Amino acid sequence: MREQSKKLSQLRTQAETQLAHVSENACSPRPAEELLHKLQVYEVELEVQSEALRQAQVELEESYDRYVNLYDFAPVGYLTLTSEGLITEINLTGAALLGVQRKELLLHRFAHFVAKEYNNSWHLFLGNFLQNDEQQSCELLLKRSNDQNFHAHLDCLHINAGNGGYSVRIAFTDISEHKQAEEALRIAAIAFESMEGIMVTDANGIIQRVNNAFTRLTGYSEEEAMEQTPALLNSGRHDSDFFQDMWATLNKQKHWRGKIWNKRKNGKIAADWLTITAVTAPDGNITHYVGTFSDITSNPEASAEIHRLAYYDLLTQLPNRRMLLDRLKQALATSSRSKHYGALLFLDLDNFKNLNDTRGHYVGDLLLVEIAHRLNVSVREDDTVARLGGDEFVVMLENLSDNMQEAAIQAGLISEKIRKAVAMSYLVQGLELWTTVSIGVSLFYGHEASIDELLKHSDFAMYHAKQEGRNNIRFFDPEMQATLVERSSLESDLRHALGRQQLRLYYQIQVDNERRAIGAEALLRWVHPERGLILPEHFIPLAEKTGLIVPIGLWVLQTACAQLRDWADNPATSNLQLALNASALELRQPDFVEQVQQAISVTGINPALLKIELTESLLVDNLSDTVTKMNALKAFGISFSMDDFGTAYSSLAYLKQLPLDQLKIDQSFIRDLGDNSSNAALVQSIILMGRTFGLDVIAEGVEEEAQLSFLNLNGCHAYQGYLFSRPLPLAEFEQVIKRV
Ligand code: C2E
Ligand code: MG
Ligand code: MG
After folding, report:
1. DSSP state, 100?
2. Which of 277, 296, 297 is nearest to 287 (CA)?
3. pTM above 0.70, yes or no
4. How many angstroms separate the alpha carbon of residue 505 from the centre of ligand 3?
5. 3-state secondary structure at position 156
6. Would you say 126 and 85 are in contact if contact means Cβ atoms under 8 Å apart?
7. Which residue has its alpha carbon closest to ligand 1 atom 10?
8. Which ligand is closest in space to the CA of residue 508?
9. pLDDT of 13-54, one tens digit each?
């Protein structure tokens, strides 16, 4: 700027001299004009530049104001101290925090505002800070002018004071609230670890935190409880109404309190006094639930109830299995002393499942209560009537004759009385109902047989009573004894059959109307080292009863898939569809669908070539689970056939619900096709039903040409039976395939 005005005044002098010269010498005016022009240009330039300068100055002032504003009104207090601790500068926030006008603070000692109990630590801190050339922070209790203390957090920085010494720049904030929150948290943490069990769940009931008392009371560690729901503790002692009420109260009142039966990790049932509180966000939405509980099991009222729950059946109030076992133990000891016989009667209702399904569980329950009552009045007071669960009851008779024959007659008479009492009609909810019972009886005398054996004996006798037409009484006899022994040795062998590779799959061809092979059924055989080839009817029921059917079924599935894989390479077998049989228990496995999918993907076979045969017994319970699983597998490409169709209690209702592909007419209808016109009509209607529902129909057990032509004539298109081939080991089956 100075430069420019200098230049301008130079130009001006130059111009003036030249103009003077011009007036002296009028004949050469040009250089003077040029100079004047230059002068004007410079003047304009100068004006522009000084405008820019003014602008820059305004901006500088504005930014200074902004800085001052920022400095003064920052949410943080700023102050500068001399190395002696005198305040030389402080922003408005800082002054407000200290509760003093800014001007009164200047050159005041900062230590004056430090609470007495912190004075020492402030001096120590400052001394240390001045010696070490780095940023440091500390927390102090500061005094406000009105003597109200507050917790402050200080960040300190050295700044050069210019004369070789330094000053200290401090930023400080009021952290009282934070401190209070911290303290509240510390208190809460101590309270959380109280004597009472506490669990905190999120709004969906997923456990987020538990305390040590929770672990001590329930046995579950924090890791085990996390991400679970409180159902982890479910004892099964409360019905769904109980929980529905609890939730209704919680949602309405945000609070629930009451006694609850919980199950500990070790299986023990305990009474807890539980308080649940819903935690809500400011918008009113529930964010968490806090459950606090203490164990009140040792309270006398609760322990009486625990005893009742542990030893009695909730529905009928009869002794349960546990109580029965206790009493049976005592009864054997008494019999051994008194030399009197006793008897164990195993009762199973004959049509209860059906009744439950058709009339509903509520009616079923009421009926069980009434039956319990009738059993109780049919026996003497000293005898025990227990309910084992479902529709199974046990009656234990004590102190019968000391003579076996007489004791058997006594037990027979009481059994007959019970059988008749149960068979009389019932009036439940205005409905007249009937049911009958099958009874198995075994006598006991001292410790001749163990409790376990006794129960098995009467159970087995009951099973025979059922087989002989139900509504029946059967005594356990030596022949049954022999079968039982045989069965238990078979059972222990079966446990090893899979591991010792004694199981085989046989294949039975399935054909179309032209007798061309369309597929096969895989049928299980057990090659027993001593007993030879055992057919499924002799070991599948046992495998089902013991649960061994699950690993066995998995082996069948994997073997069948591996077989399909092998057949895929050969044009003669590559189109064969292979059917395998799956038991209800297998299908009820939660991972059944995954097992099948895995077997298929491991072998890489075409899922359309795999068919699963189900039996109607599967549909008795949990139809919807079956449907879900079938749908999942169907979506994968697998097909389903209903095996032994027509033998069980089938209904059109479930047929419509199941995603089936095929009905398999049971062989019993085919066998008597010729001489029994009612079977012929039945087969015709099954074929028709299949057509109506868009299902394939296959007939099994076709042994004769006459049967084949009858079926053919009536619209059946697929067959399986000895007429074409028996089930065969793989090599022989493949020979048969070559021939057809
Ligand atoms: P199923 O599934 O109804 O099998 C048909 C049964 O009929 C087979 O008996 C077969 O050998 C027999 N059969 C076939 N054609 C004829 C014929 O023309 N006349 C006569 N009289 N019988 C014929 P098998 O192999 O003894 O199997 C009996 C049952 O065992 C099967 O009945 C099935 O329910 C079950 N089973 C077989 N293998 C398995 C398996 O791998 N898993 C499961 N869960 N059950 C299986
Ligand atoms: Mg089958
Ligand atoms: Mg069948």
Report:
1. S
2. 277
3. no
4. 16
5. strand
6. yes
7. 727
8. 1
9. 776 666 666 555 544 556 677 888 888 888 888 888 888 888
